[in-house]
Amino acid sequence: MLTKNNELETLFKEQFRSLKVYEGIVAALAEAPASLSELARRVGTPKGGGFADQLGNLIRAQFVREYAPVTADGRRRRRTRLYKLTDPFLRFYFHYIHRNQALIARNRRGRNLLRAMAGSTLQQYYGYAFERLSEDAMQDILDHLELDLVDVEEMGTSFQQPRGANLGLQIDWLIKRRDGVWSLLEMKYSTSPIGKAVIHDIERKIERLAAPESISIEPVLVSAAGATAAVHRSGFFNSIITLEDLV
User: Fold this and answer.
1) Phi/psi class of residue 168: alpha, beta or left (left: φ > 0; alpha: ψ in -120 to 50)?
2) Residue 19, CB half-sphere, CA atoms under 13 Å: how many?
3) CA separation for the pair 105, 97 (Å, rounded)
4) Would you say the C-alpha torsion 205, 126, 102, 2 has a positive or negative sign?
5) Domain 7-119, CATH number (from 1.10.10.10, 1.20.1250.20, 1.20.1070.10, 3.40.50.1820)
6) Which SS3 state, helix, strand or coil, does residue 113 take?
7) Which residues of the chain are in CATH 3.40.1350.10 domains?
8) Residue 18 backbone phi and psi in degrees, to 5
9) Are 34 and 82 in contact (CB under 8 A)?
10) How is domain 131-246 classified at the CATH fold level?
11) Which residues pair with 181 in a beta bridge?
12) Residues 85, 68: contact at Cβ < 8 Å?
């Protein structure tokens, strides 16, 4: 892993021969995923022209991923895109190194400065990392569900932006199968088994998804530490996939 404070600059210069042009985009996405308009607002620049090209370069370099939502009605929404910073080093750098460089430079005693700086946010960082691992291991997830790509009509993340009375929706991964069954995947990182509260969360997501009446939805839990005995007994999830299943 890159360890020196100045290696972010080295990384960007190797990829793009420039630092400042792209740093604003990456720093903004480190805060949270964003649409193109929201991202441009955070960076403080118009969303067209050069800005779109720079974002495209980050996507091609695999630092950023572009997500088009899988919708319940099947209609393509060309203007609806979500952008996430998925490069592990850049996420780590902007969360914990960038704002703490002075402290890091003074650290000579070898104490666990990272844990003190990160606090409770480290769990959130692990959560993002687990989501990326799950996406990258999607073929293994399909194998676990006994699905082939020929069985899949469409798959990907599903989201709706909050508007008015619409509270919004975020589904980690939705697999629309050709047999009229949709697999709704919830990806959870935790060091202990997930409890029954997750069931209520998924029920609300299914309600907001508003799938056609002809569709059956099978919830799937992808959890680093699995689920409690109570969750297993409930029979709510069609399948529970653990970190061991993915690696």
Assistant:
1) left
2) 7
3) 10
4) negative
5) 1.10.10.10
6) helix
7) 131-246
8) -160, 155
9) yes
10) Trna Endonuclease; Chain: A, domain 1 (3.40.1350)
11) 216
12) no
The sign one gets for the Cα dihedral 51, 52, 54, 59 is positive
Task: Show the tokens assigned to 34.
Answer: 């964003």
What's the pTM? 0.82
Region of residue 226 (phi > 0: left; psi between -120 and 50: alpha; otherwise: beta): left
- List beta partners, residue 187: 222
DSSP 8-class letter at 154:
E
Please answer whether residues 11 and 97 qualify as being in contact, where contact means their C-beta atoms are separated by less than 8 angstroms: no
- Amino acid letter, 118: A
How does pLDDT run along the chain (247 residues), one tens digit per residue? 444 455 566 666 556 655 677 888 999 999 889 999 999 999 988 887 788 888 999 999 899 999 989 988 877 666 678 999 999 888 888 888 777 777 777 776 666 777 777 777 888 888 888 999 999 999 999 999 999 999 999 999 998 876 666 667 899 999 999 999 999 999 999 999 999 999 999 999 999 998 999 999 999 999 999 999 999 999 999 999 999 998 8
Amino acid letter, 91: R
Residues of the chain with CATH 1.10.10.10: 7-119
> What 3-state DSSP class applies to 112?
coil
CB atoms within 10 A of CB 148: 9
Q: Can you tell me whether residue 157 is helix, strand or coil?
A: strand
